[in-house]
Fold:
Amino acid sequence: MFENTTILITGGSRGIGASTAVLAASRGANVFINYRNNHDAAASVVEACRAAGGDAEALAGDVSVEADVKAMFEMCTERFGPPAVLVNNAGILHNLDRVENYTAERLHEVVNVNIVGAFLCVREAVKVMSTNHGGSGGAIVNVSSAAAYLGSPNEYVDYAATKGAMDTMTMGLAKEVADEGIRVNAVRPGLIETDIHEGDRLERLWRNIPMQRVGQPDEVAEAILFLASDASSYVNGTLLNVSGGR
Ligand code: NAP
Structure:
């Protein structure tokens, strides 16, 4: 499905990004993985991608740092050719707390990574993919969250708001580049079993989910790769919930 396709995945060393990398590699993709600082995790994802039948490379970089984002696209293009797919997945959240306790530092960090970082990545992707810039088109899949419509009260309203911004960016950018060969969509995962959750959060909350279980990273990866593939060739500007019905 992805033979000779270069897929760039931000936050690909763990969780949803790592599952997407290995699944894409098993379908023939060359996967370029960005991560923040967990070198061992990134190295084992590269190994797993190669074992799965694709090729992979990883580069550390912070998506909120412009020079790091530029370097990631340059290295990816050098190694595998320009990406035809961007999975805009890197994201962070802080400890569970009420809005009245948020520090400015916390707010700056979550906005910088989840909004500014996501914008820097799609900006570079448009520059390499757009037919207006001599590119061959492509697909961008933003990894938003069910938090965008739930609001995450008493937990992380700031994080939820950044995902709301990502949804709006998805819809606006999709229209902006639709006739330049680029489709832009988002997945909105619910409660997925990864390291991002604090303490016993998954155990406390799974009963609120209509399907009565948490989701697995692979289940989100399947949805991401559907939106990245030609199987979704007429799907654009869509927000796909992957949340067990919640
Ligand atoms: P995770 O297990 O915590 O993994 C986060 C990944 O992002 C890691 O690869 C990490 O790199 C990387 N990362 C963090 N900050 C970064 C930065 N500034 N620059 C580059 N890479 C950075 O997270 P996850 O649960 O898989 O979440 C992935 C995405 O799905 C996020 O956008 C999250 O908001 C979204 N999401 C998750 C859930 C869920 O329930 N898990 C639900 C809805 C949405 P290192 O390994 O180097 O730290």
Remarks:
- Residues 10-17, 34-38, 41, 62-64, 89-92, 113, 117, 143, 145, 189, 191-192, 194-196 surround NAP (CB under 6 Å).
- Residues 58 and 195 are 20 Å apart (CA to CA).
